[in-house]
Design a protein that fits this description.
Elements: H1 3-13, E1 26-29, E2 39-42, H2 47-55, E3 60-63, H3 80-90, E4 94-97, H4 99-103, H5 109-116, E5 120-128, E6 132-140, H6 144-153, E7 167-175, E8 192-204, H7 208-218, E9 226-231, E10 235-250, H8 252-262, E11 269-270, E12 278-287, H9 292-297, E13 302-306, E14 321-324, H10 327-330, H11 334-345, E15 351-353
Parallel strand pairs: 2-3, 2-15, 3-4, 12-13, 13-14
Antiparallel strand pairs: 1-4, 5-10, 6-8, 6-9, 7-8, 10-12, 11-14
Helix pairs in contact: 6-7
Length: 364
């Protein structure tokens, strides 16, 4: 199995197209055609992790955080990023980062947080926007089923928990081919009227090239008439954060103690206690101040996240308990999720969970 094959497996689980625009995901170091010996799964790809990969005969590191976040202009080992990249290249070790692609899927980072807190009835907190397109095309009646079935197989027509969704309207189309045309139906130079079905299907933005290729390969016409429209609809099952419910209410202090234990943090910074029981809990792994508004709008009693700044706490406005459990701590279950997934999918070599603690923050 090559590095690219592993990349494809990860992309099926957490499509890299789901990553945020600011992010840097995918294969960051290495040759996609290199044969994989073993895989080391880590939270970060630091120099000690590369040393661990060397010691354990792993030539691919699959990590959560990208080691290269902004552009590199030189490789002189002058900082920790350059040292990692140099050592990885020198030892033929590839590095693949998944980061916000895994943040944005239901079974990713925030799923791990929900599982740790035993939350039920979970759903996405902030569904992803501007990621759905609609295809409209016009197909002869006799070819509608074959064309739509092929588009369904390519990933079109999925809405939430439903698949093979489409809308059809019957009408008639007209066309006249010029001297360079080679019409499948009708004759060159003669206007033709054909009973057609107008077909509408939605699809996710990253599938656009695949959907169009499928349409062109399966549509009977020489020239395919189609329209693609960007929709304002949100992706229900893709997005940042999750929200769910505890099995039973807790006091705020009980919940803080529970969260401190589950996330194994040295301390929780939190907003003012409100003196009321909590049951509806929102979570967002990593830096989550941007989700405070959404958590309040959905009636969450608590938002568990990290990297809250001084003025972020004012946004609680006596409506929600904001809990900062620490960046690494909020994502601590992530590398286990990655390791479990790859272990399930790959049996030809070892998937090894890194033993290195890459949390840069210590508590006194």
């Amino acid at each position: 199995m090559k590095v690219q094959d592993v990349s494809n497996l990860i992309n099926e689980w957490a499509p890299l197209a789901y990553a945020e625009d600011f992010d840097n995901v995918g294969l960051l170091v290495g040759d996609p055609h290199q044969e994989v010996s073993n895989i080391l799964v880590s939270h970060d790809a630091l120099e000690n992790v590369v040393d661990e990969a060397i010691a354990k005969n792993c030539n691919l590191i699959v990590c959560f955080h990208p080691i290269i976040f902004s552009g590199l202009k030189r490789l002189t080992a002058s900082n920790y990023v350059q040292k990692v990249v140099q050592k990885a290249i020198k030892n033929d070790i590839a590095i693949f980062a998944i980061h916000t692609a895994l943040d944005n899927v239901e079974h990713g980072v925030n799923f791990g947080m929900c599982k740790a807190l035993n939350l039920s009835n979970t759903k996405i907190l902030s569904p992803k926007q501007h990621h759905i397109y609609k295809l409209t095309t016009y197909v002869p009646h006799a070819s509608v089923k074959s064309v739509t079935d092929s588009l369904f197989r390519a990933g079109a027509g999925s809405i939430g928990n439903y698949e093979e969704c489409s809308f059809e309207a019957k009408g008639q189309g007209s066309f006249k081919g010029n001297e360079n045309s080679n019409p499948i139906i009708g004759s060159r130079g003669t206007k033709h009227i054909e009973p057609e079905t107008q077909v509408h299907l939605t699809f996710e933005k990253h599938l656009k090239s695949k959907i169009l290729q499928t349409l062109f390969e399966n549509h009977p016409y020489e020239e395919v008439a189609y329209e693609i429209t960007s929709l304002e609809n949100t992706l229900q099952n893709v997005g940042m954060g999750m929200i769910g419910q505890l099995d039973k209410e807790m006091s705020e202090l009980e919940f803080l103690a529970f969260a401190k234990d589950q996330f194994k943090t040295g301390g929780i910074r939190h907003s003012q206690l409100l003196g009321k029981p909590v049951k509806k809990i929102a979570v967002l792994g990593g830096s989550g101040a941007f989700a405070i508004k959404s958590a309040k709008a959905q009636g969450a009693d608590v938002l568990v996240t990290s990297d809250l700044k001084y003025h972020d706490y004012y946004q609680a406005e006596s409506r929600i308990l904001l809990c900062d459990v620490g960046h690494y701590e909020s994502e601590r279950y992530t590398k286990n999720l990655i390791c479990d997934y790859l272990t399930e999918k790959i049996s030809t070599f070892a998937i090894i969970l890194s033993e290195e603690n890459t949390n840069p923050i210590n508590y006194f």
